[in-house]
Each structure stands twice: as C-alpha cells, then as structure tokens.
Specification:
mainly alpha, two-stranded parallel sheet, 49% helix, 2% strand, flat
C-alpha cells in the first residue's frame, strides 16, 4: 500500500504543481488563478477544496463537464473551473501509485469492504456524527449490508419525534436541522434494506445542576423566549451564578471578564485552574483574549489548535528573512510583522504601548529602509497636531522612542 501523505506533504506537492503550471509557457498554464496562486495561503485553501471534492465524489472530469455546460455565459466561473480541473487532475496524477491521503483510503475501503470477513456479522456503533458526506454514505451503505446490528447516536431535540417516523418540519436555520436530516436518511436507508428499526429517546440527565442554565439552553435559538420568573415550569427563585454582560466593544467585554476572574481569585479563594473561558468566535476573540489576559497577569493555557503558518515563531522567521533578502527589505510591513511576534519584549524591554507609539511615528513620517533605521543620527521626534488633539510634552517621549528604535535596529541588523 502506498505511504500516507500528511497535510504538510499535500501543501508541498500542490505548491510544486502550481509552480510548474505557472512556469510552463508551452501550455495554457493558469488563467483565473494566475495571480492568486502566488499569494500566501492559496495552497492551503486549494488543499481544502480538493479534500472537500473528494469527500463529495467530484472528479476533475465533472468540473470539465460543468465548465462546458456554463460556456462563455459566465467566463470568469468557467475559467476557475478549468483551472481547478487542471490542478486537481495534476494532483491525482502525481498521487497515483505513489501516495494516498485519508480520502483515498476511504475510497479503497468502499472497494474492499465486501471482501472483509471481520466486518461480516459484526455489531457497529456510530457516535459523534452530525451528518454523512457522499463518500461516507457509500461506506455506510455497505456496512448496513454486512453488519448484524447498527447503533447510531444523534444529538437533537426530541420534541415532536415519533420512533421510526421521519420528521421534516424543522427549518433550515434550526440548530438540529442537520441531525434531523441525518436521522431521516438513516431511517430511509434502513427501510430500503428492509431492516427493523428500534429508536430510543434519552431524556433527563445531570448536565445542568443550575435550573436557570437549563432553561437558557432549552430556549437557545428560540424567537419566543419565556422569561425566567414565577410561572416558568422550572422556576426555583432568582437565577444564581449567571451574569449576562453587554459591552460596547469586544475588548471592553474581555476586560470585564478578566476583572471578574481576578476578583474571584482574590476575594473568593478560587484557583486559576478552576476557571475556564469558552470562545464561540476564536478568530475574532482569540488573539485579543490572550492580550487582555497577559495585561491582567492571568496565567492561561490555550487549547485551541492553530495552523503552523500562524505561529509567532513562523511569522518571525518569515518576516526576518524578508528583511534580509526581499526587495522591500526594511519596509514598515516587514519590520513590524517581526516586532509584533512578541519575541522582542524582553530583549528590547518593549511594551505594547511603546511599540504602538513607534509604529505611529514610522507610519506618519514614512520611515523605511535599512539606512534610516540604522543611521547613527537620532530621528527628529516631532508630531503634527490638529485642532482636536492635545499637546504632549515631546521631550518626555523622545528618549524612550530613540532607545526602542536603536534596540530594534541592532537586533534586526
């Protein structure tokens, strides 16, 4: 069996194929993706798209057929489909007989399952699935034929459900819509194969010790909210240990959270490890949360996974190399990408406010180039004011700014 290819390996292979397409002047190369292919992050997006198309059993030939159907009525979309088909075809050709990935293994599983003696008559348990893509449905279809018993666990609201009867009355925006569609698919699959179905609805549980929290969960995504007050079926007095805080900006919201954490530790005797923070929007709040926790001196561990390309060390290496070898050299973007990685805080004694002050000055006066950063003469620190701004004593800020600038220049040069 061919060796497996990791995500990094997929990216390297796709990058090689893209570079070959872009450099090949004898063929048509790339049309719609010619500029995008040179941008950072494009290979990762391309890898995700190919992975998704394999999951939905879409081949390069399907893309070519679709491009012919569209024709010149939408030339831009047609160009994207043709480029995607070319890259996808190159990728499959490069993988054939040499490597395989997770989707290739699942496709081979579809072929080999009927020959397996291990699966025949086995008891199958499925848990944690929200839905099944077409490739997974092909495997599931064969497993239903081979296994003696199939047990599937789904998380959904049981209101209005009847055992063994499909339910099609949930709106698409409902939080359990996909689980409901998966249940309907499984019931249909079992019916087509003339399998008996036994369905059990689990109720109760001890997930919520706080009745008010349980009432909030029950009314999640509900447009007709029932207030927590006398008359509510679960009402047991005013809500305890639940606070809803509204702030004008995300940072103010996080600062209120950090202040409450500090209060719990100082006044209530809580330990830092007793407190957890759940973020729904990791991209919007992740970096800002870490920044606020550091400012308040709160130790924390971030369990969220992040791509290696977004790691501060990777950003430091990229920006430092750009300063040394790129045409832009000591441009504003390269220098401050490097300084904002956080690796210069101790060596330069660099605080966030001071870095912001230095950045504002560099932007305002267009400082760029190695000569300006490393010149022995001090920068003339002055600030242009408008009628709305207050005057600041520049004498106090000048020594601090000069020291930071000299330290940064020494470390980067």
């Amino acid at each position: 069996m061919e060796p497996g290819l990791t995500e990094l390996g997929r990216h390297l292979l796709l990058k090689k194929l893209l570079d070959k397409r872009l450099a090949d002047k004898d063929s048509q190369g790339l049309q719609a993706f010619a500029k995008a292919a040179r941008q950072r992050g494009f290979v990762g997006e391309l890898s995700d798209i190919i992975n998704e198309m394999k999951s939905y059993c879409i081949s390069p030939e399907n893309l070519l057929q679709l491009s012919e159907t569209i024709g010149e009525a939408n030339s831009r979309l047609q160009g994207k489909l043709l480029d995607m088909a070319s890259i996808y075809g190159d990728f499959n050709e490069a993988m054939a007989g040499r490597y395989n990935d997770g989707k290739d293994i699942m496709a081979k599983l579809v072929e080999k399952l009927p020959q397996s003696q291990l699966v025949k008559g086995a008891e199958l348990w499925l848990d944690g699935f929200l839905f099944f893509n077409p490739l997974e449905k092909q495997i599931l279809n064969q497993l239903f034929d081979l296994c003696s018993d199939v047990h599937v666990n789904l998380t959904m609201d049981t209101t209005g459900l009847q055992a063994g009867v499909p339910f099609d009355y949930l709106p698409r925006e409902d939080i359990f819509y996909r689980s409901c569609q998966t249940r309907n698919y499984l019931l249909e699959l079992a019916s087509n194969k003339e399998m008996s179905v036994e369905e059990y609805f689990l109720t109760g549980g001890n997930r919520y010790g706080n009745p008010a929290l349980k009432a909030m969960e029950a009314q999640w995504m509900n447009h007709h909210i029932r207030p927590w007050q006398p008359g509510h079926p679960d009402y047991q007095g005013p809500a305890q240990n639940i606070k809803i805080v509204e702030a004008a900006a995300p940072r103010l919201e996080l600062e209120a959270m950090a202040a409450e954490i500090v209060r719990l530790v100082r006044e209530k005797g809580c330990s830092w490890s007793d407190i957890g923070i759940l973020l729904r929007d990791e991209e919007g709040y992740g970096f800002l949360t870490e920044l606020v926790l550091q400012e308040y001196g709160i130790p924390f561990f971030n369990a969220a996974k992040r791509q290696g390309i977004k790691h501060p060390l990777a950003e430091l290496i990229r920006s430092a190399l750009a300063i040394c070898i790129s045409r832009q050299g000591w441009s504003y973007e390269n220098v401050f990408r490097c300084l904002k990685t956080g690796f210069f805080k101790e060596s330069c004694n660099l605080l966030s406010d001071e870095l912001d002050e230095l950045e504002n000055y560099v932007l305002e006066f267009g400082i760029r180039g190695r000569k300006r950063w490393t010149q022995p003469e001090p920068w003339q620190y002055m600030r242009r004011y408008s009628l709305e701004t207050e005057e600041i004593d520049e004498k106090e800020k000048e020594p601090c700014l000069l020291y930071i600038r000299y330290m940064c220049a020494v470390l980067l040069s």
